[in-house]
Amino acid sequence: MNTALVLHVPSTEPFVGEFRAQYDPSASDGMPAHVTLIYPFKPSGEVTSTDTKKLGEVCLRHRSLDLSFASLGRFPGVLWLAPEPRNFIASLAHALAEAFPDWPFYGGTIADFVPHLTLAHLEGPDAEVRLDQIEKAFRSAVDGHLPIHQTVFWVSLFDRSQNGRWREVSGFPLARG
After folding, report:
1. CATH superfamily assigned to domain 3-173
2. What H or E segment, with its residue span, contains residue 81?
């Protein structure tokens, strides 16, 4: 089964949870609100103690993050909330990808890492029109509540267990400060 390295951002859940539950398949599979760093990562049975040691070392070279979510972005078929400061998140993600070169961002299907929290991921010929509607509804729902803040103290390793549900199996602390 697949694993993922993510920044878990529970403070966003009251604002994004309803949208993710309806429009993000990973939410219905148990993945909480998050910013993905590496997905897919190693299959769960292949994550070794050497890997977890290396993950811990990489994470401790990066400080905890005070994130702010204030703006929306789009990819084809995807509506997302943008975390800031993006450069710190990207630096952490690039360090993890460098430490595990066999596990690039999104399996190597994307050229550049863009930190984001997915609100909706749709497919089909009317996906963009539906995303326009979802974006409008989300903007209305969070009016006056942005930015959302979250301090992240660790990188979470999530495993997609045998029943197809995501669960957090480990956390790797970031340096304090």
Report:
1. Cyclic phosphodiesterase (3.90.1140.10)
2. strand 78-84
How many Cβ atoms are within 10 Å of 37's Cβ, its own excluded?
24
Q: What is the pLDDT of residues 78-122, one digit of tens each?
A: 999 999 999 999 999 999 999 999 998 777 777 788 999 999 999
- Cα–Cα nearest to 86, from 100, 73, 97: 73
pLDDT in tens, 42-68: 988 899 999 999 999 999 999 999 999
In this structure, the number of other CB atoms found within 10 A of the CB of residue 63 comes to 13
Residue 88, SS3 per DSSP: helix
Domain limits, the chain: 3-173
Q: What Cα–Cα distance (Å) separates residue 38 from each residue in 3, 35, 136?
A: 9, 9, 29
Six token digits for residue 4: 């993922």
| pTM of the predicted structure, to 2 decimals | 0.94
